[in-house]
Amino acid sequence: MLIKTEQITKTYSLGKTCVRALDGVDLEIDRGEYVALMGPSGSGKSTLMHILGCLDTPDSGRYLFNGEDTARLNDLQLARLRNRAFGFVFQNFSLLPRLSALANVQLPLLYAGISRSQRIRRARELLNLVGLAERMHHRPNELSGGEMQRVAIARALANNPTVILADEPTGNLDSKTGAEIMHLFDQLATKGNTIILVTHDQAIAEHARRIIRLRDGRIVQE
Amino acid sequence: MSFWELIKLALGTFHTNRLRSFLTVLGIIIGVMTVIAIISLIQGMNYEVERQIASLGSNVIYLQKVSWGMGRIDWEEITKRPDLTLDDARAIARLPLVENVAPLRARTINRVNYRNRKVTGLEMFGATPAYATIANYRLATGRFISSEDSLRKHYVCVVGAYIIDNLFPDEDPLGKKLNIEGKTFTIVGTLERKGSFLGQTQDNVIGIPLSTFEKSFAPKSGFGELAHSLSIAIVPKKGVPLERVLDQIRELMRRRHGLGYDRPDDFGINTQETLREIYRNITRVAFIVMIAVAAISLLVGGIGIMNIMLVAVAERTREIGLRKALGATTRDILYQFLLESVLLALAGGALGITLGLSIAKIVELTVHLRAAAPLWTILLGFGFSATVGIFFGIYPASRAARLDPIQALRYE
Predict the structure, then answer these.
(1) DSSP letter (8 states) at residue A134
(2) Which of B75, B101, B281, B351 is most buried by a 10 A CB count?
(3) Terminal Cα-to-Cα distance of chain A (whole angstroms)
(4) Cβ contact, residue pair B323, A108, below 8 Å
(5) Is the pLDDT of residue B21 over 90?
(6) Mean pLDDT of B154-170
(7) Residue B213, Cα to own-chain centre: how many angstroms?
(8) pLDDT, position B82
(9) Helix (H, G, I), strand (E, B) or coil at B218
(10) Contact A94 B405 (CB under 8 A)
């Protein structure tokens, strides 16, 4: 099993009130699955994604990635995991504004210690794949929302990650552009990539082959 | 992530925040500028002063009523000291280790006239013929004061180039008569030009026979008397250790003044070394002041850098989170921000070095002081700024590096 969580809980304190974002989540996702984590806002779906992507740690419970307990990993190993095993696509695109599309795609390759010439070759390849070959020298402010999200997807794919984690990837896009982006995810899934989508939108979730519904930090329906 | 990649990253940040980066490093610029300017001026001054001290005549010992630069001066004790006399000079001349002796007196002269022309601010000495060789005076034309002049108290003088420039721009000065404070002197020789020191001419001298000096410019009492009292310039025999000559002179003078073994010297024996010592004391003070100024401005500059780096970390919290999500390690982020502050400080240092050298150059051109900036001062400037960059950059950088990726990503 690629991803396995055992009774994961996570609590946030927002001022004086405590919010229980995750309340005992058991989840198993296998290699090659195309999964949607669905739920209304505040259901804990984003928190779950952050924990699965090793951006955050659970308060209790265990998270096994590839059979290894992530709680046992040190800072460096976690950084390496985020770099090589996961590819993140965020709702707000999260591109560095000072860098061109090409340079943004290169970031994970840079932290993987790949040489400049190889980085550029790989980044061009990826921008080609997402259909942005023409605009690779543009900066984010010169790109449309859909184009920015394509750059973000290209970046997520840079180190051939084991899992692609996408948090509301169409949330800031109009429906036509959103559909194009979802088409890209569908293609990646057909090629055998493991994809975990976080969304509150039933139509988006239906692209996935498996839908996990969350409510108040629990899985309510598979 | 390679070092070069980190550098490019940092440079990109400065480029987008040019004015802010400049203001941040102003403290460092000023600190390094001060250090570089002062060091190169002191270096130039060292060179000049050494040249001056050497020009006093190598190995010349000056026996005077007071020691040069003797710390706290006890005027009461000094005024009770016996005057040095020509007899003292003669006795010293008879010492076995002494080659040559020249007694002399000196004072400033406010005004010298020639017909309707005048020149002010002069130094006059009264000396014997031996003084020319001892003080390294070379004649341009004519002759120096002769023994005949001394014996007969002639009203003759030798004059420096400054006086000739002012009184005889297009005449031969030899044989002309000068009016020195109401007395008439005939010019018998002109001195070779010595040039200026710290923008001050050294050619504003008039030399007359010592005997004439004593007759016409009799020492006044009090402080004036002290300033005009007799000095004895002494040249030791060649190859004799200076210490032994000094001992011999001291012993002789103590005997002549009848000093018991428990009484301190009531005269001063001064050498070039005494002057060097005084000069070293002065520059030591300058160095301490410089270090204080530099330390304060580097501290201020460092705090400026720390402040702006903390702002940068706060501003770029999202960027840090994103970089961590994409695989940046704690160390990658630490180095990124540390290198930014170091490069910022180094850029300030480079600017400070440039400005410091320019200031030294300007001073050199206006005061004719040879400024010298050896390579080590430049390395020192860079070393200082890099240290400041590291020292004040480490805290903001480690704060950035310790940020939790998810907290940083959520930050708005």
Answers:
(1) G
(2) B101
(3) 17
(4) no
(5) no
(6) 92
(7) 33
(8) 85
(9) coil
(10) no
DSSP class per residue in A176-216: HHHHHHHHHHHHHHHTT-EEEEEES-HHHHTTSSEEEEEET
Record the tokens describing residue A209, joined without a space: 């082959």
Stated as kind and residue range, the H or E segment containing B107 is strand B98-114
Domains of chain B, residue spans = 3-51+278-410, 60-270
Confidence class of residue B58 from pLDDT cuts 50, 70 and 90? low
pLDDT band of residue B199 (cuts 50, 70, 90) is low
Note whether B381 and B352 are within 8 A (CB).
Answer: yes
- For residues A199-217, one letter each, b for 16 or more C-beta atoms within 10 angstroms of the residue's C-beta and e for the rest, the string is bbeeebbebbeebbbbeeb
Q: What is the pLDDT of residues A147-196, one digit of tens each?
A: 998 899 999 999 989 999 999 888 888 888 888 889 989 999 998 899 99
Identity at B86, one-letter amino acid code: L
Distance CA A160, CA B144 (A): 97
CB pairs below 8 Å between A and B: how many? 61
Residue A71 DSSP code: G
Sign of the Cα torsion B215, B217, B222, B224 reads: negative
Instruction: Identify residue B55 by its one-letter amino acid code.
Output: S
ipTM for the complex shown = 0.92
Q: Taking a C-beta distance cutoff of 8 angstroms, is the pair A63, A52 a contact?
A: yes
The total number of residues shown for chain A amounts to: 222
For chain A, the residues whose C-beta falls within 8 A of a C-beta of chain B are 50, 53, 55-56, 75-76, 79-80, 82-84, 88, 90, 94, 96, 98, 107-108, 110-113, 155, 159
The neighbour count for residue B284, using CB atoms within 10 Å, is 10
Asked if the C-beta of B323 comes within 8 angstroms of chain A's C-beta atoms, the answer is: yes
Beta-ladder partners of A165: A88, A196
Do B87 and B253 contact (CB within 8 A), yes or no?
no
Kind and range of the H or E run holding B346: helix B330-367
Using an 8 Å CB-CB cutoff, list chain A residues near B406. 50, 55-56
Question: Would the pLDDT of B412 be above 70?
Answer: no
Q: Rounded to whole angstroms, how far apart are CA atoms B2 and A103?
A: 15
Q: Say which residues have a Cβ less than 8 Å from residue A158's Cβ, sequence separation at least 6.
A: A87, A105, A106, A107, A108, A109, A112, A122, A123, A126
- R_g of chain B, CA atoms, integer Å: 32
- Closest-CA residue of chain A to B402: A75
Beta strand A163-167 pairing with A68-69: unpaired
Q: What is the pTM for the complete model shown?
A: 0.72
